[in-house]
């Protein structure tokens, strides 16, 4: 109860000057082509000067992108800014060239148009710029949006899914304004919470089970989610989709980059209100947002201890409960989905990634932080993983502050945190894990479907100030022998390769080409990649005049399908 008294006192003092505004709900985009325009804008957040922003198809944040698993979609990202950017599909399993990493730069006033096949499970993902050194600034100004993927498994469950009626996106960001009302990018004085870009919002919700798709889109801050009066809620999804069963909670910690889908049952609360909170007073020290961000009482961050949000409880959304909708969901399902985890016994490589602080040593809280003793370089690939391989990544945090570690290109599973089994909330598909100070986390992951000998995927701390300061590395996924061992020959009806044996040319007919593109790889019988092409038309002829006589495997990858055929020169 003490925490509530504190919290309400705080709200009274600091929000008394504002009247509550309805929570902004981003509009949705769906279909097979998505046009996203990044542009400069402005918003009147405070009295006096308007705040300069970057919006996507608007002044702040971007539309919610609705995708269906299995669809092939075309994004066109128009960079209408006067500076370069990129657009990253955070959490999506896409080829490295389409990932929107720092390598996929979109120069000012140009367009980037990746076509992707949606392979991920139903869940809540997001998109944001990822230009090295500029990520925090561009995201702070407002360039980010939610991606919702739907699939048949999720659709078969009785869950709220009427967007804006019983299913709401909740993007939590903390912001600082300078004396001229402009956003400050790197600062510990982020006193203002924005939810979907709204300060101190209220939201009308029906008196039934309501779904919140919560994204921590903040630069550094960790939230400790919960409801007024410890009203219970259920977590049904983590970063990369649904959990196996709902997890009954009263608190959930959410670090930068992480998502959680929550169900809260408001049946019977009509005409009442209930506040959605961050219970920062309960965050253990060593986490950004706690009373002390360091775990060892060492060091601090300028401006941190005077920030009224640190170590305090504060309201995120004031929920006003109204009448039920036409077909309300009023119960929480007992079971959700079955997860298909990679086999631990299949793992062939264990990699250790050590997080350390440069300069000031272990007690430093402001970095720059390093991974394996190195700062990020665009030109250095840190290691290569083999397509089809399963690996364990052991992330060892030797700093006094927790870091949210993120891996691109896939979803992983957490094996253990500090040697202990992860909480139920953390047993689903994840792409960000908060690695506690001075602890080690082990992750299990498999590199499926895509490889690229040139373009790497990123791994990094998702505290954007740490990332921009170089707490990032990159890995390649290569196609080699391990990959081919795992290839099952697909349905050969779909593809026709001739002549076989071949000589100077090899022609591939793959009628599915049209809306999809496919990768063609020619591998030797020992799995060495000989030739890699993107097929955009059918039939498609490749020049094989330089291949030495012998047995080859022609591998055609189209979305989640891999077809392999033996061909002989
Ligand atoms: Cu959300 Cu590498 O990013
Ligand atoms: Cu990402
Ligand atoms: Cu970090």
The residue ranges in which pLDDT falls below 50 over 5 or more consecutive positions are 1-17, 480-493
Can you list the ligands bound to this structure? Answer: CU-O-CU linkage, copper (II) ion
Q: Compute the number of helices.
A: 5
Q: Determine the mean pLDDT.
A: 90
Helix content: under 10%
* Shape, principal axes of CA atoms: globular
- Secondary structure class reads mainly beta
- What count of structural domains? 4
Number of strands: 41
Please compute the radius of gyration using only Cα atoms.
24 Å
The CATH architecture of the largest domain can be named as Sandwich
Largest pleated sheet:
8 strands, mixed
The level 1 CATH classification of the largest domain is Mainly Beta
Q: Could you give the distance between the termini? A: 77 Å
Beta-strand percentage? 35-45%
Q: In summary, what is this structure?
A:
With 569 residues, the protein is mainly beta. It is built from five helices and 41 strands.
Description:
It is a single chain. With 569 residues, the protein is mostly beta strands. It folds into four domains: 31-154, Immunoglobulin-like; 157-335, Cupredoxins -  blue copper proteins (Immunoglobulin-like), CATH 2.60.40.420; 344-478, Immunoglobulin-like (Sandwich); 486-568, Sandwich (Immunoglobulin-like). 6% of the residues lie in helices and 41% in strands. The chain contains five helices and 41 strands. The strands form eight sheets. Strands 12, 13, 14, 15, 17, 19, 20 and 22 form an eight-stranded mixed sheet that branches. Strands 1-16-24-23-18-21 form a six-stranded mixed sheet, covered by helices on one side. It is globular, with a radius of gyration of 24 Å. CU-O-CU linkage binds at residues 88, 90, 128, 130, 257, 406, 408, 458, 460, 462. One copper (II) ion is lined by residues 369, 403, 461, 463, 466, 471.
């Amino acid at each position: 109860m003490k925490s509530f008294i504190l919290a309400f006192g705080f709200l009274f003092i600091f929000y008394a000057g504002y009247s509550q505004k309805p929570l902004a709900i981003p509009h949705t985009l769906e279909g097979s082509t998505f046009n996203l325009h990044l542009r400069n804008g402005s918003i009147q957040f405070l009295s006096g000067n308007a705040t300069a922003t970057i919006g996507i198809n608007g002044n702040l944040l971007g539309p919610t992108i609705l995708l269906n698993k299995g669809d092939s979609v075309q994004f066109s990202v128009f960079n209408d800014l006067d500076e370069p950017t990129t657009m990253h599909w955070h959490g999506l399993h896409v080829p490295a060239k389409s990932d929107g990493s720092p390598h996929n730069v979109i120069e000012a006033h140009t367009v980037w148009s990746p076509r992707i096949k949606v392979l991920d499970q139903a869940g809540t993902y997001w998109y944001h710029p990822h230009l090295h050194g500029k990520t925090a600034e561009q995201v702070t100004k407002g360039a980010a949006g939610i991606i919702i993927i739907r699939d048949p498994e999720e659709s078969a469950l009785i869950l709220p899914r009427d967007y804006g009626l019983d299913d709401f996106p909740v993007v939590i960001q903390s912001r600082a304004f300078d004396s001229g009302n402009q956003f400050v990018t790197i600062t510990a004085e982020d006193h203002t919470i924005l939810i979907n870009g709204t300060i101190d919002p209220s939201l009308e919700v029906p008196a039934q089970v309501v779904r919140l798709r919560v994204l921590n889109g903040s630069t550094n801050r960790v939230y400790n989610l919960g409801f007024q009066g410890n009203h219970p809620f259920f977590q049904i999804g983590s970063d990369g989709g649904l959990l196996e069963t709902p997890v009954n909670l009263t608190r959930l910690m959410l670090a930068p980059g992480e998502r959680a889908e929550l169900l809260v049952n408001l049946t019977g609360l009509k005409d009442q209100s209930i506040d959605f909170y961050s219970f920062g007073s309960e965050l253990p020290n060593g986490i950004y947002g706690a009373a002390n961000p360091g775990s060892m009482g060492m060091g601090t961050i300028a401006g941190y201890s005077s920030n009224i949000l640190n170590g305090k409880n504060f309201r995120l959304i004031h929920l006003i409960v109204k009448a039920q909708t036409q077909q309300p969901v009023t119960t929480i399902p007992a079971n959700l989905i079955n997860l298909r985890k990679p086999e631990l016994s299949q793992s062939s490589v264990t990699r250790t990634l050590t997080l350390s602080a440069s300069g000031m040593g272990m007690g430093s809280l402001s970095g720059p932080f390093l991974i394996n003793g190195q700062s990020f370089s665009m030109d250095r690939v840190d290691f290569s993983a083999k397509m089809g391989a399963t690996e364990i990544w052991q992330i060892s945090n030797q700093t006094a502050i927790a870091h949210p570690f993120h891996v691109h290109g896939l979803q992983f599973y957490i094996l253990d945190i500090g040697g202990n089994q992860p909480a139920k909330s953390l047993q689903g598909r994840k792409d960000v894990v908060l690695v506690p100070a001075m602890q080690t986390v082990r992750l299990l992951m498999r590199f499926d479907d895509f490889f690229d000998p040139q373009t790497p995927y990123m791994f990094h701390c998702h505290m954007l100030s740490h990332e921009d300061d170089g707490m990032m590395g990159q890995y390649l996924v290569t196609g080699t022998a391990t990959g081919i061992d795992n290839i099952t020959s697909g349905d050969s009806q779909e593809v026709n390769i001739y002549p076989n044996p071949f000589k100077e040319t090899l022609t591939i007919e793959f009628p599915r080409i049209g809306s999809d593109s496919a990768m063609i790889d020619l591998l030797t019988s020992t799995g060495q990649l000989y030739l890699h092409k993107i097929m955009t038309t059918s039939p498609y002829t490749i020049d094989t005049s330089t291949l030495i006589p012998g047995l080859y495997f022609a591998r055609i990858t189209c979305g989640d399908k891999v077809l392999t055929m033996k061909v002989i020169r």
